[in-house]
Write a structure and sequence with these properties.
By secondary structure, the protein is mostly helical. It has 7 helices and no strands.
Amino acid sequence: MAEVKDSQPLEIQKREYQKMVQEVQPRPTVGRNVFWAFVVGGLICVLGQLLLNFFQGRGLPLTEAGAATSTVLVFLAALLTGLGVYDEIARFAGAGSIVPITGFANSMVAPAMEYRGEGLVLGVGARLFTVAGPVLVFGIVTAWLVAVLYYFFR
């Protein structure tokens, strides 16, 4: 490592400091992160497909099997978030854990769990839609506007 002296001009000290920072700064492991995001996201999707096949094999039509699959995936993601397991999966898998259905469940439960010490109403209830609320509002308003436009221009 380079030694920085007080007698050096400030610009040189800054350059030396930046050099030292670059030497010890950890390198991003993009390839590994992309691989595990792909694997974990794929496994979540495979689980969803297996559940869909299971429900269809039990005689449910495709739409009802899809609803049951979504319900089970949301429940599992919420349960794993509540147990603290989903956070560990997300830490390992990164973006792969944000598959839309499970990521949505996690985004609803995580803030509620964080504030559960404040009670059921002011903690869990008030924080349940902290992250997901704006997404729901935007989705509902957009769906309403599309329906109105469809009604007038069909």
